[in-house]
């Protein structure tokens, strides 16, 4: 990057909710790149783990802007509710095609020197890697676990190995997406501190979003707000169980043939899904009935979310990369006309989304389902205005 070129750093995120650890990432970016502008590409009403976000996209976008972000865009739902590889690919593609982002920042437990060999092997697997992968899958391991075993068989590394750490897993996907798309974005890893999955807030300088959500859902709004560093809204929220009955009805009403068209529904999983839905009274009970060593919780959770949102494998295959990003919020004058020169459409209102576009139609369904779970009238999320600070 030339000395006279403004650094504009992209972050692919969920902010469910935004908390002090996310603010720390902003600070570390600007410590490395003084004066950098920050563009946040955030999931919308539903998250990668296949759950409704606790707060509406507009509330999460405002929190990011108030903490120092310059622009918040929404990652379309077709890419937000995906496995790590496709979540990263969709996000990196979108930030690259904006045409003005210069860097990609992401959390990681290790530096690039530790991550790049694993990313290179995953992109160009050797015969030894492929054989180790097949052997692990034959033993009943999930694909992610089998991939880890194959990496361990081919690359010397301390334990835990870089690819076994939660933030590194997604970081590897970002690095692979940059390579696959031949993106000019410069990777800018930020060292993650704290336990990504820690369920408690006590004694933690950098809270996890998991712990903040748990405190909020347990009714400890004061603790959740202290961990976030701002007045986290008390409402509206979509609680995790809010759409359970809608999900179970949809699963019970469809036959196994229809369920087989869901993304990543293979090896007869549609039959287990149909049988489990008939027995379960809640989403969590359903997932406990379905989960095995082969079928990880997050994969099954996304499968349920896709069923809820009427997503098919065919839709995702036909639309491998995002074609637009909705503007959720911006800092007035921060990017000086760059939005107008974007190579991608950047609608500012949901009304600008074309219902005939399958990706846009999915986003509109996601907005309305989240509103239903939050006890809001249909169309409420579509009518929320862009936040301008």
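^ structure tokens above, recovered residues below v
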């Amino acid at each position: 990057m030339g000395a006279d070129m403004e650094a504009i750093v992209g972050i692919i995120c969920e902010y469910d909710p935004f908390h002090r650890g996310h603010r720390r990432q902003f600070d570390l970016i600007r410590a490395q790149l003084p004066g950098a502008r920050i563009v946040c590409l955030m999931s919308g009403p539903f998250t990668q783990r296949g759950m409704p976000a606790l707060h509406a996209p507009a509330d999460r976008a405002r929190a990011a802007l108030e903490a120092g972000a310059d622009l918040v865009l929404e990652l379309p739902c077709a890419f937000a509710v995906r496995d790590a590889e496709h979540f990263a690919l969709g996000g990196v593609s979108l930030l690259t095609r904006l045409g003005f982002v210069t860097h990609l920042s992401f959390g990681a437990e290790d530096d690039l020197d530790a991550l790049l060999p694993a990313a290179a092997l995953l992109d160009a697997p050797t015969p030894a890697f492929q054989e180790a992968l097949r052997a692990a899958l034959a033993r009943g391991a999930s694909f992610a676990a089998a991939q880890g075993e194959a990496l361990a068989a081919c690359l010397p590394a301390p334990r835990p190995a870089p690819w076994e750490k939660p933030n590194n897993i997604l970081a590897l996907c970002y690095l692979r997406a940059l390579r696959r798309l031949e993106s000019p974005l410069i990777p800018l890893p930020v060292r993650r501190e704290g336990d990504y999955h820690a369920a408690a807030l006590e004694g933690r300088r950098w809270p996890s979003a998991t712990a903040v959500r748990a405190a909020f859902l347990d009714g400890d709004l004061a603790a959740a707000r202290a961990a976030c560093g701002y007045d986290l809204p008390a409402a509206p929220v979509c609680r995790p169980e809010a759409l359970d009955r809608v999900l179970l009805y949809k699963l019970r009403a469809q036959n196994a043939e229809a369920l087989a068209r869901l993304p990543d529904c293979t090896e007869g999983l549609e039959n287990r899904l149909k049988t489990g839905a008939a027995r379960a009274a809640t989403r969590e009970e359903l997932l406990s009935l379905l989960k095995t060593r082969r079928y990880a919780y997050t994969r099954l959770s996304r499968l349920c979310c896709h069923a809820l949102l009427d997503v098919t494998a065919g839709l995702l295959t036909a639309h491998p990369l995002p074609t637009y990003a909705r503007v959720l919020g911006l800092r007035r004058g921060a990017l000086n006309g760059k939005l107008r020169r974007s190579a991608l459409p950047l609608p500012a209102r949901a009304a600008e989304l074309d219902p005939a576009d399958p990706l846009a139609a999915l986003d509109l369904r996601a907005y309305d389902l989240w509103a239903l779970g939050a006890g809001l009238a249909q169309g409420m999320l579509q009518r929320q205005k862009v936040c301008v600070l």
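The two ends are 29 Å apart (CA to CA).
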